[in-house]
Write a structure and sequence with these properties.
mainly alpha
Length: 134
C-alpha cells in the first residue's frame, strides 16, 4: 500500500483592503485589551460601574475585533470593523482618553479601506490588461 499524501490547496489570494483592515483590527485589539487593563488599574470608570468591567469590556472587544478581522473580505465585515470603531469612540463618553484611540485607529481604518480598495481596483485593472495584451 502506498502512503497517502495530502496535496495542499492553494491559498486564497487576499486583496490589499482585506490585508490592511485585518492588520488594523488586530493591532487595535491589542490596544483595546491594554486599555481595559488601564481602565481597571486607574479606576477610570464612573462610580456606579465596577472597575473590573474595564477588563471585561477590553477583553471582549479585543476578541471581537480579532474575529472580525477574519471577515473583512466581505462588505459586511468591513462595516463590522466600522462598528467597532464607533464602539471605541462611544467609550470616550466614559473614559475621555479613548477619544484619542478612536481618532487614531478610526483614521487608520479609513485609510485601510479607502487606499486598500483603490489598490485592489488598480491591481484588477492591471491584471485585466496584462491578460488581454498577451
Amino acid at each position: 500500500m502506498g502512503s497517502l499524501t495530502r496535496v495542499p490547496r492553494p491559498r486564497r489570494r487576499r486583496g490589499a483592503e482585506e490585508s490592511l483592515t485585518s492588520i488594523v483590527l488586530g493591532f487595535e485589539a491589542i490596544v483595546a485589551f491594554l486599555a481595559g487593563l488601564v481602565i481597571y488599574g486607574t479606576s477610570a470608570l464612573p462610580d456606579p460601574i465596577p472597575d473590573w468591567w474595564g477588563i471585561v469590556a477590553g477583553s471582549v472587544l479585543a476578541v471581537l475585533m480579532i474575529v472580525s478581522g477574519r471577515f473583512v473580505r466581505y462588505r459586511w465585515g468591513i462595516a463590522l470593523g466600522w462598528f467597532w470603531q464607533l464602539v471605541v469612540g462611544a467609550g470616550a463618553f466614559l473614559v475621555p482618553a479613548l477619544a484619542v484611540v478612536a481618532l487614531i485607529f478610526g483614521a487608520m481604518y479609513a485609510y485601510a479601506t479607502i487606499k486598500g480598495a483603490a489598490l485592489d481596483r488598480a491591481n484588477a485593472t492591471r491584471a485585466a490588461t496584462d491578460t488581454n495584451g498577451d
